[in-house]
Amino acid sequence: MSTSPAKSAPDGDSIQRLPPRERILAAACELFYRQGIRAVGVDAIAEAAGTNKMTLYRHFVSKDELVAEYLRRLWDEKSSVWTRLAAEHPSDPRGQLQGWLEEAARHVTDPTSRGCAIANAAIELPEKNHPARCVIEQCKQDSRARLVAVCREAGITQPDLLADQLFMMLEGALVCTQSTGRSGPAEHFVRAGQALIDAHSR
């Protein structure tokens, strides 16, 4: 599913009540997602967090390290969805897979979404030696692995193939929403995903 900080981002007053490190990270999450990583400087982050650059660098040695921590935070939030789905559908991997599809669809059709923050970061940060690059790659690899595991537990005969198809379809749907809107190809995300699952279940 999409990784977006928009829904859980605290408002300005809430940010100011957080400890300095959390204020900086919360401000960075919102600014990086809404404006882009390259477009946001440390001055803007410090101002939004109600602090200064000296304090920012006391908690994060560089902007690059702050970006990496931003993405780790998003991945932690995204990973928690699988825990919730397992609790909602105990011993029911097929139900978890359907739940994943519906959860992903909510992000695809969210009018406030700017797509997957981790995928956006991958486009902005092509340098292999960037501290955030390994976080990006690990997040996507782990996401695929979790989907493969649920497909396998659901008794799908080719779990890797179905997981890859669903994974690529979600990535594409998130991009389509940005370019053609919710009424474009992305509006068929759930039906297309269900058709794939049904085809692999025969």
List keywords for this structure.
single chain; 202 residues; mainly alpha; Arc Repressor Mutant, subunit A; Tetracycline Repressor, domain 2; 2 domains; elongated
CA-based gyration radius? 18 Å
Provide the domain count.
2
How many strand units?
0
Largest sheet: none
Provide the structure class: mainly alpha
CATH class of the largest domain: Mainly Alpha
CATH homologous superfamily identity of the largest domain: Tetracycline Repressor, domain 2
* Poorly predicted runs: none
In the CATH classification, which architecture of the largest domain applies?
Answer: Orthogonal Bundle
Element pattern in H and E: HHHHHHHHHH
Q: Name the overall outline.
A: elongated
How far the N terminus sits from the C terminus, by CA atoms, comes to: 25 Å
Determine the strand fraction and express it as a percent band.
Answer: under 5%
Number of helices: 10
CATH topology of the largest domain: Tetracycline Repressor, domain 2
**Roughly how much helix do the residues carry, as a percent range?**
55-70%
Explain this structure to me?
With about 200 residues, the protein is mainly alpha-helical. Helix 2 packs across helix 3 and helix 5 packs across helix 6. The chain is elongated. Helix content is about 70%, strand content about 0%.
